[in-house]
Specification:
The structure is a single chain. It contains twelve helices and 13 strands. About 35% of the residues lie in helices and about 15% in strands. The protein folds into two domains: about 260 residues, TIM Barrel, CATH 3.20.20; about 70 residues, no CATH class. The longest helix is centred in the last third of the chain and has 20 residues.
Length: about 350
């Protein structure tokens, strides 16, 4: 595998660990991936619940928690550490400011178009900005807006396809439509981004995400023009993943038919592993009485069947009677829990075997 360069940062492996909230990818997983040569990513989502002991105010607790997680990752890791901050979060601005003040290497931002992300940069700031998109059109809009308003271009772009876990930037009808597959859209995004690279003489690597699980997948996707890949699901079943053992076990036990598309209170479709809680939602047995956190801008408590941050927090702790696990389309392929080091070595081996096979054809 070749290296991945994002600005003046160089990862020895072109593998980014996707940000997974609530509590699934914190400093433990991020540091482990960074130490193996990839890019480790802390998810900022839901930290107000995980760090509620620091403040009774959800937003304040989340920002204090994020700062602590970044510092913990820095203490453990010698590599590149990023933070994922969703645009849809009510405290998006505060979390971005915290990430920058803590000098995190990269901010990844999706679940909406992060059109004002460069506005938070200060003079001398070294934090790289990487938007997450689902189409060439979205990539073009962000590049044009950032250049016009801030004289800044993305340091990289992540294209997340419809096979990803968690919230998806696609309509229900597009998820299984081959016209919107990662393989179909990736060359379009690479071509669109290349226009800005040429015009402004700046390298903007495109990173592919969504349904990438094996080293063979990585090889295949990089042959289509990706400079790197982002994997979330594959890293859940690792020793260092910050989720509870029960959360990891839900991946091990999942069958392909257990992985389903759900309608999230956020207003976007999502991919998750079926649970008793989700069945109760389908049966109309769930209805929140109030919104305790106001954590998502687009969440309407009057129409929401449950509080999503609480459901994900319960799953993080292993309580699937009151929560569920987000997962990518290939989560059912997990068979055991092993170290991040062993996982990375497997990915490299699988990649090399595929590369050797293709070179002999």
């Amino acid at each position: 595998m070749r290296t991945l360069k994002i600005g003046n940062l160089t990862a020895s492996l072109p593998i980014i660990q996707g940000g997974m909230g609530v509590g699934i990818s914190l400093s433990g997983l991020a540091a482990a991936v960074a130490n193996e040569g990839g890019i480790g990513v802390i998810s900022a989502a839901g930290l107000g619940l995980l760090y509620k002991k620091l403040s009774p105010n959800y937003t304040e607790a989340g920002n204090l928690g994020l700062a602590e997680e970044i510092r913990k990752a820095r203490a453990k890791a010698k590599g590149i550490i990023g933070v994922n901050v969703m645009v849809a979060l009510s405290d998006f601005a505060e979390l971005v400011k915290t990430s920058i003040s803590e000098k995190v290497d990269i901010i990844f931002s999706g679940a909406g178009l992060p059109l004002d992300l460069p506005s938070f940069l200060k003079e001398g700031c070294t934090t790289k900005l990487v938007p997450i998109v689902s189409s060439a059109r979205a990539a073009k809009i962000i590049c044009e807006k950032w250049m016009t308003n801030y004289n800044y271009l993305p340091d990289a772009v992540v294209l997340e396809g419809p096979k990803a876990g968690g919230h998806l930037g696609y309509k229900d009808s597009q998820i299984d439509d081959n016209n919107f597959s990662l393989e179909e859209v990736l060359p379009q995004v690479v071509a669109e981004v290349a226009l800005f690279e040429q015009k402004y003489n700046k390298s903007i690597p495109v990173i592919a995400a969504g349904g990438i699980y094996t080293g063979e997948d990585i090889y295949r996707i990089m042959q289509l023009g990706a400079s790197g890949v982002q994997l979330g699901t594959r890293f859940v079943t690792t020793d260092e993943c910050d989720a509870s053992p029960a959360f990891k076990e839900s991946y091990i036990q999942a069958t392909e038919s257990d992985i389903e598309i759900i309608k999230s209170p956020v207003g976007m479709p999502g991919r998750a592993i079926h649970s008793k809680f989700l069945q109760n939602v389908k049966d109309g047995l769930k209805q929140p009485k109030s919104c305790p956190y106001n954590c998502i801008k687009t969440c309407n408590i009057e129409k929401s069947p449950y509080c999503i941050v609480l459901a994900l927090y319960n799953a993080f702790r292993g309580n699937f009677n009151n929560g569920y696990a987000f997962a990518g389309s290939n989560a059912f392929k997990a068979t055991s829990i092993q170290s991040v080091k062993a996982t990375m070595q497997e990915l490299i081996k699988e990649f090399n075997v595929k590369e050797l096979f293709m070179s002999k054809r």
